[in-house]
Write a structure and sequence with these properties.
With 310 residues, this protein is of the alpha/beta class. The protein has a six-stranded mixed beta sheet with strand order 6-7-8-3-9-10, sandwiched between helices. Strands 2-1-4-5 form a four-stranded antiparallel beta sheet, covered by helices on one side. Strands 12-13-11-14 form a four-stranded antiparallel beta sheet, covered by helices on one side. Helix 4 packs across helix 5. The chain is elongated, with a radius of gyration of 24 Å. The protein has two domains: 215 residues, Rossmann fold; 68 residues, Alpha-Beta Plaits. Helices cover 35% and strands 29% of the residues. Bound molecules: adenosine-5'-diphosphate and magnesium ion (MG). The site of adenosine-5'-diphosphate has 11 residues, from strand 2 and helix 1.
């Protein structure tokens, strides 16, 4: 197990990270979600022993790695936010270079490079210079570099920012596959809640240097569990239907957008019978009715009063 204990980083007057506790259990994909500037990169730089914490500790199997970073570095792969590759070398030459840093050589290195190229989908492009690569291909190669020494843990810092949707999907699928097939433990950092929602077993949501909430997706969403949002699609918005919804004591809020009507109700009440009755009375044709489960975005908004996106 890898854990951060009360991690804090002070840059001059500014506390970028303030008392962060988090852990990674073997085999998990854990998400670190937060808006730009939340302190995600600083947190993972400390966890991966690239920068020292102002206070707090990083522990691998209960032993501090601050004084012995080599213990962690052997079992950890880091995919940094900034691309760290040599533009004038080919993909393969980059992998050879970084493999040597990990003291791999000869046929072992050769085999590892082939395997990594396969995983990140760059076999066909291995001899092309990195300066001719798209952003998505560079990201994929960057991930390949982090995988060369077969780490147990991999930490990825916003690996899909600014790349095409195809590469993005490829990366997300690769993370899933590494976790499933190689049992790799992943800490995945992002400000895209859909990615974290898709990938992660457990999630930490960070804002202004603090972890503001953590748990499984369901646990986090249960924070908003007091109310249900029901979305109805109608053929035509009928004013008398909207008025009737407003007048219904079981309904707390009504919002209309195009041909979609959202109502908020306390979770324990069953409002469906009323909805169908009111629709019939006002000659409203419902084309669909569904309960919307809250998103992580809704939770973030609820806790901070701000949207996750910039
Ligand atoms: P995130 O990765 O969540 O976007 P960062 O960890 O990069 O956030 O940054 C958190 C805060 O710390 C930001 O306000 C940022 O400007 C500040 N910061 C990050 N690195 C440094 C540094 N080396 N010196 C001073 N301030 C920094
Ligand atoms: Mg960052």
């Amino acid at each position: 197990m890898l854990e951060a204990v009360e991690l804090t980083k002070q840059f001059k007057q500014h506390k970028a990270v303030n008392g962060v506790n988090l852990f990674l259990e073997k085999g998990e994909i854990v998400g670190l979600l937060g808006p730009n500037g939340a302190g995600k990169s600083t947190t993972i730089s400390m966890i991966s022993t690239l920068i020292p914490p102002t206070s707090g500790d990083v522990r691998l199997h209960n032993e501090s790695v601050i004084k012995h970073p080599e213990r962690l570095r052997k079992v950890l792969g880091v995919v940094p936010q900034e691309i760290a590759l040599y533009a004038d070398l080919s993909a393969k030459e980059n992998l050879q270079f970084f493999g040597k840093i990990h003291r791999l050589s000869g046929s072992v290195l050769q085999q590892k490079i082939e395997e990594v190229l396969e995983i990140v989908g760059l076999v066909d492009r291995q001899n092309d210079l990195v300066k001719h690569f798209s952003g998505g291909m560079k990201r994929r190669l960057n991930i390949g570099v982090a995988l060369l020494h077969e780490p147990e843990f991999i930490i990825m810092d916003e690996p899909t920012v600014g790349i095409d949707p195809q590469s993005r999907n490829y990366i997300l699928e690769t993370v899933k596959r590494l976790n499933k097939e190689k049992k790799m433990t992943v800490l995945y950092t992002s400000h895209y809640m859909e990615e974290v929602e898709f990938l992660c077993d457990r999630i930490y949501i960070m804002d202004k240097g603090h972890i503001i909430v953590s748990g499984t997706k369901d646990e986090i969403k249960n924070i908003l569990s007091a109310e249900n949002t029901i979305q109805m699609k109608v053929e035509r918005v009928n004013e008398s239907f909207i008025e009737a919804l407003h007048a219904n004591p079981l309904i707390n809020r009504v919002t209309v957008q195009d041909r979609s009507i959202m109502v908020l109700t306390p979770k324990e009440v069953n409002v469906f019978v009323d909805l169908f009755k009111l629709a019939e009375e006002t000659k409203t044709v419902l084309t669909s009715v569904e309960i919307k489960t809250p998103t992580l975005e809704d939770v973030f908004l609820h806790l901070t009063g701000r949207a996750l996106r910039d």
